[in-house]
């Protein structure tokens, strides 16, 4: 078995799989190390709601046969209001999608080693030169990429990321049949992806229903375990308790039944990223702190992150005399901030402010969105300060004061 490659990638998720696709298509020797067994892949890592947009499908050449349902709209709900925006989307069968990335990159020559748990970097002369996995197995590469998500065994030990517990987001999702998709008093969720802001269901976070055809849908919630969550949380409630509470109290689920084997759990870190690379190394996908979980469209961001890392690696490897030093790999950070997450600081502050708001303020937000033109929300999501300010008013003074105290301690 070969143990020397141009690029070693830890993790076969969307970021790692796409990075392998791009590099293998360029003719590089690539190996991907994945913790799970190939027969069950992806089982434990099948964690995403898998909502995305047709633009992502086209940009990355994703086939229609991994799509469970194409959708026509995005619905935002609050406890008593809702807002509907026409926005084409796609709900993926996440397992099929991840397997496609593996097989497509394999067709171009990428090698995958399953049952390969990465444990530590191999460092020589203060530079990473390879990866240790499954205890004493070793593999070497000119460039090493960590795409393992929040586990981040390589990025953490190299000091590239510092994932803080107070920014840790957790999520749970089930797939159901028997859902009342067009319940009177609620928005019609046929061919829709719905996100709900409601601290009764997801304190300091959000919940969702993504229609997957007929009377079936993906249903889940997530929240960040920080001050916003603590402010609204119920004593002794786990994330499973909140999901069960929603299922028991929302009439749309009165006749719903869980689909066997369709349970997904996941986590991410919601904080501003620092430097994402060092000599011969890059951290991609959810190994890097997430920009924001509500508006960030995670699959696309992970795929883009993998592509930017492939571009950075190619910029060094295609020239035999250009070493993959931190200086030469800095193009990855530049591309990430320009193309993956522009205006990252503003967008994250907007998300943090959103989670501090009360349920009553969420109801007002929906009413405001129904008054404004559709571009207001889109521009706010892109980090446009004027659009963000348009969504705020004099009555938000106390909310802004709490945000300032949380951010700056005053």
UniProtKB/TrEMBL annotation:
InterPro entries xrefs: Dggglyphlred_Halo, FAD-bd, FAD/NAD-bd_sf, Geranylgeranyl_reductase
SUPFAM superfamilies: FAD/NAD(P)-binding domain
A Pfam family reported for this protein in Swiss-Prot or TrEMBL: FAD_binding_3
GO function term, MF aspect, one: FAD binding
Coiled-coil region(s): none
Name listed for the protein in its UniProt record: Digeranylgeranylglycerophospholipid reductase
Domain (FAD-binding): residue spans on this chain: 5-305
């Amino acid at each position: 078995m070969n143990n020397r490659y141009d690029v070693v990638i830890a993790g076969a998720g969307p970021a790692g799989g796409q990075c392998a696709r791009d590099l293998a298509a360029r003719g590089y020797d690539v190996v991907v190390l994945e913790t799970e067994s190939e027969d069950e892949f992806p089982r434990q890592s099948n964690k995403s709601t898998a909502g995305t947009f047709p633009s992502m499908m086209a940009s990355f050449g994703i086939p229609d046969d991994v799509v469970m349902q194409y959708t026509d709209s995005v619905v935002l709900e609050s406890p008593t209001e809702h807002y509907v925006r026409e926005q084409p989307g796609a709900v993926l069968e996440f397992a099929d999608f991840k397997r496609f990335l593996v097989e497509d990159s394999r067709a171009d020559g990428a090698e995958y080693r399953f049952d390969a748990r990465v444990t530590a970097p191999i460092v020589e002369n203060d530079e990473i030169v390879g990866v240790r996995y499954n205890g004493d197995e070793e593999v070497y590469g000119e460039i090493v990429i960590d795409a393992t998500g929040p586990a981040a065994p390589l990025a953490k030990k190299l000091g590239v990321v510092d994932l803080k517990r107070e920014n840790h987001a957790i999520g749970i999702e089930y797939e159901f049949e028997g859902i009342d998709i067009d319940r009177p008093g609620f928005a019609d969720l046929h061919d829709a992806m719905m996100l709900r802001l409601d601290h009764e269901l997801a304190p300091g976070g959000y919940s969702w229903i993504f229609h997957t055809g007929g009377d079936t849908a993906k249903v889940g919630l997530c929240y960040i375990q920080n001050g916003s969550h603590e402010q609204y949380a119920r004593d002794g409630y786990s994330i499973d308790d909140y999901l069960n509470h929603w299922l028991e109290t929302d009439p749309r689920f009165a006749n719903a039944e869980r689909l066997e084997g369709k349970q997904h759990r996941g986590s991410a870190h919601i904080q501003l990223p620092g430097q994402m690379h060092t000599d011969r190394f890059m951290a991609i996908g959810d190994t890097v702190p997430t920009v924001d979980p509500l508006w960030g469209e995670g699959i696309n961001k992970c795929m883009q992150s993998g592509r930017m890392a492939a571009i950075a690696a190619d910029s060094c490897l295609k020239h035999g005399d250009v070493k993959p030093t931190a200086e030469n790999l800095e193009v990855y950070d530049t591309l990430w901030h320009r193309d993956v997450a522009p205006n990252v600081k503003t967008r994250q502050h907007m998300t943090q402010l959103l989670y501090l708001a009360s349920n009553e303020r969420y109801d007002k937000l929906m009413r405001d969105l129904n008054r404004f033109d559709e571009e207001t929300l889109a521009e706010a999501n892109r980090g446009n300060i004027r659009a963000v300010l348009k969504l705020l008013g004099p009555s938000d003074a106390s909310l802004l004061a709490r945000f300032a105290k949380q951010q700056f301690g005053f």
